[in-house]
Specification:
Shape: rod-shaped
Structural class: mainly alpha
Helix content: over 70%
Strand content: under 5%
Number of strands: 0
Length: 86
């Protein structure tokens, strides 16, 4: 009787392993891990781009301000250095 129980358990284990591999198994897990790593790299890239964007905006404000102060036409109120309105 114990031998039949053991045989049934081994067969059930083999069927479970085959079903796991057929539904994706470790390949699906590997794809999920790789997509998570890609997501992390993307998040790091977005943070990096955001910091560069803030830096460029600061530099743009600084140089635009110095242009406004130094341009002779601006002293008379005739020039607008804003690219959107000017």
């Amino acid at each position: 009787m114990d031998a039949i129980t053991l045989l049934i358990a081994v067969v059930a284990l083999i069927i479970a392993i085959l079903a796991y591999q057929r539904t994706g198994g470790t390949a699906e897990l590997k794809r999920k891990i790789e997509s998570t790593i890609s997501t992390r790299r993307l998040e790091e890239a977005v943070k990096c781009i955001g910091s560069h964007d803030r830096f460029l905006k600061r530099e743009d404000r600084r140089y635009t301000g110095s242009l406004r102060e130094s341009h002779p036409e601006n002293r008379k109120g005739r020039i607008d250095l804003n690219p959107i309105t000017g």
